[in-house]
Specification:
Elements lengths: L27 E7 L2 E8 L2 E5 L16 E5 L3 E4 L5 H8 L22 H11 L6 E3 L3 H9 L15 H6 L31 E7 L8 E2 L10 E4 L15 E4 L8 E2 L3 E3 L22 E2 L10 E2 L21 H8 L2 H15 L34 H12 L2 H16 L16 H18 L5 H12 L2 E2 L10 E2 H6 L7 H17 L7 H22 L10 H9 L2 H12 L1 E2 L7 H12 E4 L2 E4 L31 H14 L1 H7 L10 H10 L16 E4 L4 E5 L8 E6 L3 E2 L3 E2 L5 E5 L2 E5 L9 E4 L5 E5 L5 E5 L9 E4 L6 E5 L2 E6 L10 E3 L2 E4 L2 E6 L2 E6 L3
Parallel strand pairs: 4-8, 7-11
Antiparallel strand pairs: 1-2, 2-5, 3-4, 5-12, 6-12, 7-9, 9-10, 13-27, 14-17, 15-16, 18-19, 20-21, 21-22, 22-25, 23-24, 25-26, 27-28, 28-29, 29-30, 30-32, 31-32, 33-34, 34-35, 35-36
Length: 847
């Protein structure tokens, strides 16, 4: 019997595809072990619940009763995920897990650990000064699992286990092994994998339940077995119920038995792990700048009309928008973009099928392929022909789109042979391939026969391919792409879930689809979109693996999926209170100085630096073309200002107008659909603050203006970031100004103690982990365009406030202003500097 033996569970139902977000998760905290290895804990409120199951619950066992009221009198911090192999290894210097032979093994739950092993693990953790760690009690575990529900599962009775499949790995769906933590949806309190995954040790000895109410029960004082909860990948669904209990001797080790931790913060806060404030008061018109980690991830699109079954197009635009797009096609701007699209499609006028096909039959051919001129077949060709069909009504374009789809199904490879419908170069290439073919399906749909629509739609919905890899880890399916085969801190994740979202939205509602399956996978994909924004990127758009890998994770297909979610599902990520989605675009114009039509982005942090502004391919293309469809109107105007001022002339000379430098036609499609022809450009200084930060990565970017090659950009990364690649923390501020690249100051790694800024960001202060304070001033009140200030070692003028040395630097000034001390303040022109509890303060005077 598998029903009681080892299984697991979990995840926060963060998205309802119909358009309603469920309860937001509780407050979260990150506790760092080593570089790239950290625990995430969720704070759960104190509360009361009924523990155990009623006599009539399906699947109930006798030891789940009698039911009793349990009160947990204190809030507590519970691990958002099960403890992973990487976390165990960082503490114990050994990995006992069975499932180590996967590329994602570090993110799999550790298993093969006894209760006694766990006590040693906890004891070592508790010597690190990070607070106290322990196992949850059985009552705490069930309280967290139920998340306020009295049903079998926190989402209801779920008699057919359809919702459970979205939240848990269990038999037989788990395919006989563990999977990366967090790959399924969380429960309503933001906790992943409480159901399925691995069984989880609890602190209590196992015993029958006593009767009567209890407050903070700890279990019996002695026993022979310890409690385990949640079920595992090995178990059938009945074992994953909230009330199900099981037990094992404390020395037992099993391949589906692991743990989840409770964390008790150290007295007085969290040491060097989290954001701390100094004294609570931020004078002189400054405001404290908390992370932008609250509010919904998306907002409803006003007046959105749900997509009808069989209605196309739907992904990048709706039929009601077609008249405006046809009018755009008649403008000089529209004609220029479509001329470029036609060249990319056929190598000439676009009046014909692709002119060239690469000879590769493998994702990684051994022989060089030679040049691929314009008109070489790509996975975006069907989308390009589909747009021309929509604009002209000429059925020939739909037919050429059909030919491209046929070729893809027959195994013809993209100009980059890793992208292929058949035997792609891994799941990360399969996602964009499916996504852009889905856009082609959507745009050509009305020009195809019913039989063709069904055949191509089924090819998307029933996708199942073994990738062309040296060591394939099993087939790539729409299911695996929608959930992601890698964690969000891998650049693969956004490419997978983004492509899956486009494919699912394209076939949603078709009569031949399994509607419940499509809705289930859409929910999983929507959750994946949020995870990519939340766990892959931060609230400032900084990606866990760095800039170049982040470009892949956003540009290749992910931003287009968010745009499709807005168009087809009526949910807008870009207009939501959280800035994460918008910063995927805005970060490029904040951090880049443009010189004679060339973008200069410095420094490039993290993996694949060659991708940044590599405009001609997929990985670093269309920062403007995709961005125009990824911003609200005011910020879109700022993006348009930057393009017109810095790149438009160079692109026009190159024959790649309106950011169509990429050889991929899908980006020309995106440019045409989203380019705000006729809208005014807006000086970014009028709508964008002079500074933004990513509170997850500890990244800061300051910019004085968006005017010319003499613009000044200052950046700082205070925390190391890591996925499968990463970037170390900076040791200095990076200053790009007046054509120079400079390093300044001395920076200590770690979370910022205090961060505050003026309302428009024209001046700001921050205090680092070691107490070193900095200020950045663009007001001009000092007499210089830029003033940098620090209490640490640095180049520049040094004066003292009491015993504290203060160094000021004016990198843009030919004749730096002089600073003078007057009492407890430093005067520099009209700018006044003071110290408050070790934190710098700025105030413009009026003398």
């Amino acid at each position: 019997m598998r029903s009681r033996r080892f299984r697991a569970r979990g995840l926060l139902a963060a998205v309802v595809v119909a358009g309603v977000a469920s309860a937001a998760p509780w407050q979260e905290r990150l506790v760092t072990l080593t570089e790239g290895v950290a625990f995430t804990f969720v704070q759960l409120p104190a509360g009361r619940f009924v523990m155990g199951s009623p006599d009539n619950e399906t699947g109930r066992a006798r030891d789940e009763g009698p039911q009793r009221e349990v009160t947990l009198s204190q809030s507590f911090w519970l691990g958002k995920y099960e403890v992973t192999q990487a976390q165990w290894l960082a503490v114990m210097k050994a990995n006992p897990a069975t499932f180590q032979d996967y590329a994602t093994s570090e993110a799999h739950p550790v298993e093969g650990v006894s209760w006694l092993d766990v006590q040693e693990f906890v004891a070592r953790l508790n010597t690190r000064g990070l607070g106290r760690f322990r196992l949850p009690t059985e009552a705490e575990w069930e309280y967290a699992a139920r998340a306020g529900s009295a049903d079998r599962f926190p989402w209801g009775e779920d008699r057919n286990f359809g919702a459970l499949a979205q939240h848990a790995w269990f038999y037989p769906r788990a395919e006989g092994r563990s999977h990366p933590v967090g790959g399924k949806q969380p429960n309503p309190w933001g906790l992943h994998d409480l159901f399925g995954g691995v069984w989880e040790w609890c602190a209590d000895w196992y015993a029958p339940y006593p009767s009567g109410p209890a407050v903070d029960p700890q279990g019996p004082a002695e026993g022979t077995d310890r409690c385990i909860r949640g079920g595992s990948w090995f178990n059938e669904p009945e074992a994953l119920r909230s009330a199900n209990r099981h037990r094992h001797p404390p020395e037992s080790r099993q391949t589906n038995l692991g743990l989840r931790l409770v964390w008790e913060p150290p007295a007085g806060g969290s040491g060097a792990t989290f954001q701390r404030r100094s004294d609570g008061s931020v004078p002189y018109g400054y405001r404290a700048m908390p992370s932008a980690s609250s509010g919904p991830w998306f907002v409803p699109v006003p007046g959105h009309v749900p997509v009808a079954a069989g209605e196309h197009p739907r992904l990048l635009f709706r039929r009601t928008e077609l008249a405006a797009l046809r009018a755009k096609a008649a403008t000089p701007e529209g004609r220029a973009m479509l001329q470029r699209l036609r060249l990319l499609l056929s190598g000439g006028s676009g009046e014909g099928p692709p002119a060239h096909f690469i000879p590769a039959t493998a994702a990684y051919p051994k022989e060089p392929l030679g040049p691929a001129p314009p008109g070489t077949f790509t996975v975006g060709h069907a989308a390009g022909y589909g747009l021309l069909y929509q604009l002209t009504g000429d059925s020939r374009f739909a037919d050429w789109g059909r030919e491209c789809f046929e070729r893809a199904l027959a195994g013809t490879r993209d100009r980059d042979p890793r992208y292929s419908f058949r035997r792609p170069g891994g799941a990360l290439r399969a996602g964009p391939t499916l996504g852009w073919l889905a856009v082609g399906y959507d745009l050509c749909y009305d020009g195809w026969s019913v039989a063709t629509r069904e055949r191509f739609g089924r090819a998307l919905a029933e996708y199942h391919e073994v990738p062309d890899e040296a060591a394939p880890r099993g087939p790539v399916t729409l299911e695996s792409l929608a959930r992601g085969t890698m964690p969000p801190y891998s650049n693969h994740f956004g490419m997978q879930v983004g492509g899956a979202a486009l494919a699912l939205l394209a076939v949603r509602g078709e009569p031949w689809t399994d509607h419940s399956r499509v809705e289930e996978l859409l929910t999983a994909a929507a959750h994946g979109l949020i995870r990519n924004l939340d766990e892959g990127f931060g609230d400032g758009g900084f990606f866990a693996e760095g800039d170049g890998t982040g470009s892949m994770a956003s540009q290749i297909v992910f931003l287009s999926a968010l745009q499709a979610w807005r168009s087809a599902a009526g949910l807008d990520f870009f207009s939501a209170p959280r800035p994460n989605a918008r910063l995927l675009t805005l970060k490029w114009i904040y951090q880049t100085v443009f010189r004679e039509g060339r973008p200069e982005f410095w420094p490039v942090r993290g993996g694949y630096p060659q991708n940044v502004w590599s405009r001609t391919g997929m990985s670093g293309a269309a920062y403007f073309a995709l961005g125009m469809g990824s911003l609200p109107p005011a910020e879109r105007g700022a993006l348009l200002w930057c393009y017109q001022r810095f790149l438009a002339a160079a692109d026009a000379r190159a024959g790649t107008p309106f950011d169509t430098a990429s050889v991929y036609p899908q980006y020309a499609v995106s440019a045409f659909v989203s380019w705000p022809v006729g809208e005014p450009a807006v000086d970014p200084r009028l709508v964008l603050p002079h500074v933004y930060r990513d509170s997850v990565a500890g990244f800061f970017c300051w910019r004085d203006r968006w005017q010319d090659e003499d613009d000044t950009v200052v950046t700082l990364l205070t925390n190391p970031v890591r996925g499968y690649m990463g970037a170390p923390a900076d040791r200095t501020l990076a200053v790009q100004s007046r054509g120079r690249r400079l390093s300044w100051g001395t920076v200590a790694e770690g979370p910022v103690r205090e961060w505050a800024a003026a309302p428009r960001g024209e001046s700001s202060t921050l205090t680092l982990a070691d107490g070193t304070a900095f200020a950045v001033d663009f007001t001009g009140a000092s007499g210089a365009d830029l003033m940098l200030v620090t209490t640490g070692p640095a180049e520049g003028q040094t004066v003292r406030l009491g015993a504290t040395p203060i160094t000021l630097w004016f990198p843009t000034a030919a004749s730096p202003p002089r600073a003078s001390v007057a009492g407890n303040a430093i005067a520099v022109g009209l700018q006044q500097l003071t110290l408050l509890n070790g934190n710098l303060r700025l105030q413009v005077t009026t003398r």
